[in-house]
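Reminder to self: tokens first, then the designed residues, so the page reads top to bottom the way the pipeline ran.
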């Protein structure tokens, strides 16, 4: 009864669409990146401050706790609840840059990486730089006082804060940027106003407490509340705003954030330096710090063993068991300054006992690879864990003079506690140490062992004058130890602050402060073995930012959470509800584009899982026969598109879709909607002799690849190749060929294998056993062919490996230097498709466009458009949701023309934006014509 009244109140306040009560909605949001799990009673998605105030009022009325969730990348259990979960992920995304980039103002739902992308044109960035910055949202960055690899203490969220707009638990809204904010606070919250002044006086009158606070925040420290706010600021509103930083959603809701930004030093040099042992490496940290290194990352021997499979790393077999590494990076404003810095450190390098000579690199790709490996250490440990076990990351910090002894003691503690494979790494310049361990919670003995380890860890850290949480927030797993860190007086002060703002204790209870000494071993997340594709997932949430269905149904992480729930739940009613809801949310609306694998540090492809589930459910009838006789299918598809254009011209697009809707209802067949933005069929080119490469026109292009009134993209590609004096061979026998993508998306593994095997054999012959490169003109088809390797027989695998397969973008970039071009557009917008990302050709696509246009814009949020072949026509809400952020940026750009490299993507983009989208090859062809 209480729950139904709660839901009714929330629906009246927010509207029914913003209140999510289905099992799949609640369970999919029951996890964050930590090892805890709580299923919310209800999930709400408010859009305005008055709605937040209403939620807080309803929470008090019903005595139901509230937790605010941004990106859900929290590592200490800060963003889960069994009460009301307030999600900001698809809302609160306002962003503006002011004062020539000196300040950034945004909503809590903006991701940190997006913030930096908006600041990049100004040569600025936000101060915090956590490893999760591309996925973590600004609300969480503030709520956890995020720092990171380069920012240290000086540029963390607390120290770069300009102002906050906050909704207090009482519903009062205060903007600390308002000159009248203190007057408003005094009038609306007199008790809070005067108590903050009193607390400030109380602290400042206690020299021992002042010294403790100052000492605690000299190094990274996110244990408890930001008591330094009572020393750093005089105004009650400024004190309150800075108390909110690091408060983990326990004191109020932050609705608007304004940060002071910092300058970007664009020139960088990076080196992975190997030392013979841990003391040698730690001993060198101060030298690098004094030399001005922007980052000094510590990597123990176990970390190096985990970071395998990359050409950027040394040969594992050549390293002794004690070798320890520092990842050192220098930043500079220009190339000359960077050169001077590198010359200046030669003496330091000569004096150090390195295992191998130092090699600082300025190569962007190599540098990015080193940082990718470093940032992926946490999930990489997760990828190798035993099924059913969890992965725990802790972070502590020590004064510089304690770091070496503390790390040696920590290694010894991990080894004797059964965590010999745990990795230790961190921001050595700041004395900040992370360690990652694999833990089983299957039995009470396992839980007790972890409990004992935590007790010993607390003793170790405090004995080395360290802090128990450096940057991941107190959360649940360190809440029982706040008093051990701070002492009775300071902890009592924190309780006073908490009770002053949240007297009912309903905001994120159990986080930061708790009266339960065992809260860190309650509500532990079960991780049953479910699917081989996803058992390595630690639910970090890095995948969510690129998922086309993130604002419609589920993200890859949420799909995995639901699959795990189905595997372990004992509640058959819940299981049945999840099975029913999963058809649309988990399976039908997954674009299966695999972009999640690019964002995932351990390459988990949830799209591949969904395709397997579709196959298990049964592919549509006739898929195998269609693959065997694909020439007829290709011709039939082209004819269907022609008929569609004709019928749309006669009936109108809406009229035709009414007929198609009726046909779906009568037959229950998966008949796609029609879109007049689809291109028209492209006639297959006649066979041509060529010596530079083999062109395989895709079936997608021949079915719907030619924009109305424009040159065939295939013809344009052939003419450009001729002009570059690299003519392409167009073989006979193209019509029956298919890369297998269409069958893969429908769940027909047999159909995909038949099609891909046939194409590989044909391409092998046409390319003269791999001597000539193979160009598949559409990106998605080129990628699908390469991805088919694992399902092919061994003979075809060998042939595919020996061939050079690329798409039109890759080929255009290859011939670009040989072309005579004139810039024919002032400003164009590009949409790199998901396949362009997979093929690693985004920058090549930009370079091709820049050869023909004065200015090229790629939207910050450009990712998969959600069309996924005909999936966007079957489920039109998918591309609409996938493109909602990108569309706004496209309109804001006000470009002269728009280009992509896949016909169905161009159709989906045209539908979403109301503008015409062209194949990129036509832009280059126009530029080539203009130059003659």
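Designed residues (932 positions):
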């Amino acid at each position: 009864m209480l729950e139904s009244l709660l839901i009714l109140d929330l629906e009246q306040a927010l509207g029914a669409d913003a209140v999510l009560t289905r099992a799949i909605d609640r369970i999919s949001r029951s996890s964050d990146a930590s090892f805890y799990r709580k299923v919310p009673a209800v999930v709400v998605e408010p859009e305005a401050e008055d709605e937040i105030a209403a939620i807080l009022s309803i929470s008090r009325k019903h005595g139901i706790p509230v937790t605010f969730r941004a990106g859900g990348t929290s590592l200490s259990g800060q963003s889960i609840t069994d009460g009301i979960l307030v999600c900001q992920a698809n809302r609160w995304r306002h962003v503006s840059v002011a004062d020539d980039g000196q300040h950034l103002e945004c909503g809590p739902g903006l991701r940190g990486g997006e913030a930096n992308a908006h600041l990049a044109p100004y040569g600025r960035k936000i101060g915090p730089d956590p490893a999760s910055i591309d996925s973590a949202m600004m609300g969480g960055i503030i709520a956890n006082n995020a720092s990171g690899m380069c920012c240290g203490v000086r540029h963390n969220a607390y120290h770069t804060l300009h102002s906050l707009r906050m909704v207090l638990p009482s519903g009062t809204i205060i903007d600390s940027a308002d000159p009248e904010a203190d007057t408003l606070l005094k009038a609306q919250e007199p008790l809070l106003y005067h108590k903050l002044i009193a607390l400030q006086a109380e602290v400042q009158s206690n020299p021992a407490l002042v010294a403790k606070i100052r000492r605690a925040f000299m190094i990274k420290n996110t244990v408890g509340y930001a008591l330094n706010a009572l020393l750093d600021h005089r105004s009650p509103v400024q004190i309150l705003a800075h108390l909110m930083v690091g408060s983990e959603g326990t004191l109020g809701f932050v609705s608007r954030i304004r940060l002071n930004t910092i300058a970007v030093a664009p020139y960088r040099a990076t080196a992975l330096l190997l030392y013979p042992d841990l003391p040698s490496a730690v001993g060198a940290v101060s030298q690098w710090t004094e030399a001005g290194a922007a980052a000094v990352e510590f990597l123990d021997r176990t970390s190096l063993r985990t970071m395998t499979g990359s050409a950027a790393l040394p040969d594992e077999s050549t390293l002794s068991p004690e070798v320890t590494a520092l990842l050192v990076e220098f930043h500079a404003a220009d190339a000359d300054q960077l050169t001077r810095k590198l010359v200046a450190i030669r003496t330091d390098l000569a004096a150090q006992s390195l295992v191998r000579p130092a090699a600082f690199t300025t190569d962007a790709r190599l540098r990015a690879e080193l940082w990718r490996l470093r940032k992926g250490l946490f999930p990489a440990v997760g990828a190798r864990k035993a099924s059913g076990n969890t992965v725990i990351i802790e972070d502590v910090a020590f004064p510089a003079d304690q770091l070496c002894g503390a790390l040696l003691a920590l290694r010894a503690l991990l080894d004797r506690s059964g965590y010999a494979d745990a990795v230790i790494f961190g921001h050595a310049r700041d004395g900040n140490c992370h360690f990652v361990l694999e833990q089983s919670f299957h039995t009470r003995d396992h839980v007790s062992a972890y409990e004992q380890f935590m007790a010993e860890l607390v003793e170790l850290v405090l004995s080395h004058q360290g802090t128990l949480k450096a940057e991941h927030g107190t959360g649940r797993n360190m809440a029982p130890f706040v008093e051990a860190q701070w002492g009775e007086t300071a902890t009592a002060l924190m309780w006073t602050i908490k009770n002053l703002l949240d007297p009912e204790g309903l905001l994120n209870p159990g986080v930061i402060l708790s009266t339960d000494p065992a809260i860190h071993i309650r509500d532990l997340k079960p991780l049953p073995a479910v699917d081989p594709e996803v058992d390595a997932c630690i639910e970090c949430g890095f995948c969510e930012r690129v998922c086309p269905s993130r604002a419609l149904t589920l993200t890859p992480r949420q799909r995995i959470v639901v699959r795990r729930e189905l595997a372990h739940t004992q509640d058959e009613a819940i299981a049945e509800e999840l099975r029913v809801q999963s058809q649309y949310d988990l399976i039908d609306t997954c674009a299966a584009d695999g972009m999640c694998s690019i964002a995932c540090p351990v390459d988990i492809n949830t799209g591949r899982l969904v395709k397997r589930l579709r196959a298990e459910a049964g592919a549509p009838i006739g898929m195998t026969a269609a693959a065997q006789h694909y020439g007829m299918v290709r011709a039939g598809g082209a004819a269907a598109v022609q008929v569609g254009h004709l019928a749309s011209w006669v009936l109108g697009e809406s009229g035709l879709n009414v007929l198609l809707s009726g046909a779906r209802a009568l037959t229950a067949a998966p008949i796609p909607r029609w879109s007049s933005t689809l291109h028209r069929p492209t006639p297959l080119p006649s066979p041509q002799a060529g010596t530079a490469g083999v062109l395989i026109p895709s079936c997608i292009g021949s079915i719907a690849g030619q924009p109305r009134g424009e040159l065939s993209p295939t013809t344009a590609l052939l003419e450009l190749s001729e002009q570059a004096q690299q003519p392409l061979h167009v073989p006979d026998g193209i019509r029956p060929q298919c890369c297998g993508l269409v069958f893969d998306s429908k769940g027909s593994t047999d159909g995909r294998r038949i099609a891909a095997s046939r194409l590989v054999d044909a391409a092998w012959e046409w390319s003269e056993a791999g001597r000539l490169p193979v160009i598949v003109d559409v990106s998605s088809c080129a990628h699908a062919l390469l991805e088919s390797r694992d399902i092919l027989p061994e003979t075809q695998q060998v042939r595919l490996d020996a061939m050079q397969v690329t798409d039109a973008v890759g080929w255009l970039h290859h011939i670009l230097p040989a072309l005579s071009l004139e810039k024919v557009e002032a400003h164009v917008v590009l949409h790199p498709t998901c396949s362009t990302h997979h093929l690693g050709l985004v920058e090549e696509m930009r370079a091709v466009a820049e050869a023909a246009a004065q200015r090229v814009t790629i939207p910050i949020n450009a990712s998969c458009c959600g069309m996924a072949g005909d999936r966007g026509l079957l489920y039109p809400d998918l591309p609409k949701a996938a493109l909602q952020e990108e569309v706004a940026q496209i309109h804001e750009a006000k470009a002269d023309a728009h280009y992509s490299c896949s016909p169905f993507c161009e159709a989906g983009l045209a539908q979403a934006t109301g503008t015409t989208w062209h194949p990129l090859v036509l832009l280059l062809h126009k530029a080539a014509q203009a130059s003659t």
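The radius of gyration is 29 Å.
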